[in-house]
Amino acid sequence: RKEVEQDPGPFNVPEGATVAFNCTYSNSASQSFFWYRQDCRKEPKLLMSVYSSGNEDGRFTAQLNRASQYISLLIRDSKLSDSATYLCVVNRPQGSGTYKYIFGTGTRLKVLA
Amino acid sequence: GAGVSQSPSNKVTEKGKDVELRCDPISGHTALYWYRQSLGQGLEFLIYFQGNSAPDKSGLPSDRFSAERTGGSVSTLTIQRTQQEDSAVYLCASSRIQGTLENGYTFGSGTRLTVV
Questions:
Q1: In angstroms, what is the C-alpha Rg of chain B?
Q2: What is the secondary structure of A10-50 as a DSSP string?
Q3: For B99, which of A97, A103, A106 is closest by C-beta distance?
């Protein structure tokens, strides 16, 4: 089992739709969680951090479920420009106060006109 | 610098040749990471630097791969005797002190390596 797992998609949704992605992680000691966005042939860019209480940034909402060890990303009112691959990132403690970021392989979203 | 800078942006090399990829992290970022991303694949961790030391080299695929970092800043990833399977985008990222919740990584735009 991979340490961070995502449905690769693609998720094809019409403009204006609401879409949600989940990401599961296996290390219960993980403490930090992020969603990154990667456009085709570009570098990944931080979309948002995921906090225990859940957080919202405009049309994007991220949530963390520690008991079930998954994080989610909800996109409301999808825009064509939201088409990208969304990477789930989990921070794995390695001892001595050091950490390592583990990336999922990403979920591809296509928003259709 | 303002962002993470990688050079060259593209590199085409003949099988068997050595290549050097450079990463200049954001000023003040003590942590530096190298990843590899093959076409249509996820990010594959290669090596991590904290300052000039590399506490985690576990992702380097073979002894043909090596990396160093000097002055706590610029890092160089060297691939010796390149093979076609080394073709990928090599991404460098940096971050401030590890473990800060509000910081993820900042990535450079990558070096696209093609071995022919």
A1: 13
A2: -EEEETT--EEEEEEE--TT--EEEEEEE-TTS--EEEEEE
A3: A97
Residue B26 near residue B106 (C-beta atoms within 8 A): yes
pLDDT at residue B100 is higher than 60: no
Give the confidence band of B98 by pLDDT, cuts at 50, 70, 90: low
User: Which of B29, B98, B112 is best to mutate for the A interface (most A CBs within 10 A)?
Assistant: B98
- Subunit contact A98:B42, Cβ cutoff 8 A: no
| Beta-carbon separation of B104 and A89 below 8 A | yes
Name the residue among B48, B99, B107 with its Cβ closest to that of A44: B107
Instruction: Report the relative pairing of strands B5-7 and B19-24 from DSSP bridges.
Output: antiparallel
Residues from chain B contacting residue A101 (CB–CB below 8 Å): 33, 104-105
Render pLDDT for A57-77 as a digit per residue (tens, 0 to 9).
Answer: 999 999 999 999 999 999 999
Confidence check: pLDDT of A94 > 50: yes
Q: What is the mean pLDDT of residues A81-100?
A: 86
